[in-house]
Amino acid sequence: MIHESTITVAADHPAFAGHFPGRPILPGVVLLGLAVRALGNVSGHPLPRYEIAAAKFLRPVGPDTELRIRLGESASGWRFDIFAADDVVATGTLRVGAP
Fold first, then answer.
1. What CA–CA distance (Å, rounded) separates 74 from 77?
2. pTM above 0.85, yes or no
3. What average pLDDT does this structure show over 60-86?
4. How far apart are CA 52 and CA 80, in angstroms?
5. Cα–Cα 20 to 30 A to 67, which of 25, 37, 88, 98?
6. What are residue 87's DSSP bridge partners?
7. Is 45 among the catalytic positions?
């Protein structure tokens, strides 16, 4: 089963401050956090333990960009894809309950 959610990271998000002056870019750790939060929403509770098994960042994300997060179960965990419009900006796999 595929689960999708959308979020817009506002221009005043603290992660944009100083990252980078004149051309703000959302750090990859924030994108990973969005994927983890989306998976917690799917499971119905926050994830106390998880592992980022794989992650690739394919395109920069600027302020006020609407992001679509797609989650699907796979043999190795939960695959996530994060889109800005039709472009994949990040992809990877999360494992729940990993040490």
1. 5
2. yes
3. 96
4. 11
5. 98
6. 84
7. no
